[in-house]
Amino acid sequence: MSATQKVQQHPAFQQAQDKANYYVSQLDKELTKYPLLNTFEQRTQVPKSYAFLGALVLLIVLHSINAFASPISNLLGWALPAYLSVKALETPGHNDDVQWLTYWVVFGFFNFTESFALRAVLYYFPWYFACKTLFILYLQLPAFRGAEKVYSAVVRPVFVSLDRNAGPQASASADSLRERVAAASE
């Protein structure tokens, strides 16, 4: 008999399981009063009590994470990318350099724009920092290539627009800077 089977057959485990099943059935009876939850259960085949408990746990997790999320999101947005950026600079290829340079541009742009509207955002969006942490992970993880997507869709159009509005002299100095950077990297 395995350890899992021993635990499942223990009287205390059986009693706790019976009590949990009783409370879930009582919750299911209460939730039957709400037609929206009944429809949800019929369409998804997920018991409404489990969906309700899952949503409740999700809210508790988001709220708990949000309490510490500001420093965590800033640390997560800086520590690992800084380490990987230094590591990328030490490798001979340039693909990882581009990935992390793009990340830093998007991260900086995001933090700069965040600084203007943070109070309003926090007022209307209570789990902002928890969502920001997920957004930062999206930007960092190579499977998503989020920094490249956000750069192409948001940051680059803003900078191209600003570059056009600055006039031909700014465009010429930007071209000159690009040439000097290209020559230095060779």
UniProtKB/TrEMBL annotation:
Transmembrane stretches, start-end: 50-69
Any single Gene Ontology cellular-component annotation: membrane
First-listed, main subcellular location of the protein, grouped into a coarse class: membrane
Chain intervals for the UniProt region annotation (Disordered): 166-186
Subcellular location: Membrane
Residue ranges, compositional bias (Basic and acidic residues): 176-186
Membrane topology of this protein: Multi-pass membrane protein
InterPro entries, A to Z: TB2_DP1_HVA22 (IPR004345)
Keyword terms: Membrane, Transmembrane, Transmembrane helix
Lineage: superkingdom: Eukaryota
Family the UniProt entry places it in: Belongs to the DP1 family.
Name of the featured protein: Protein YOP1
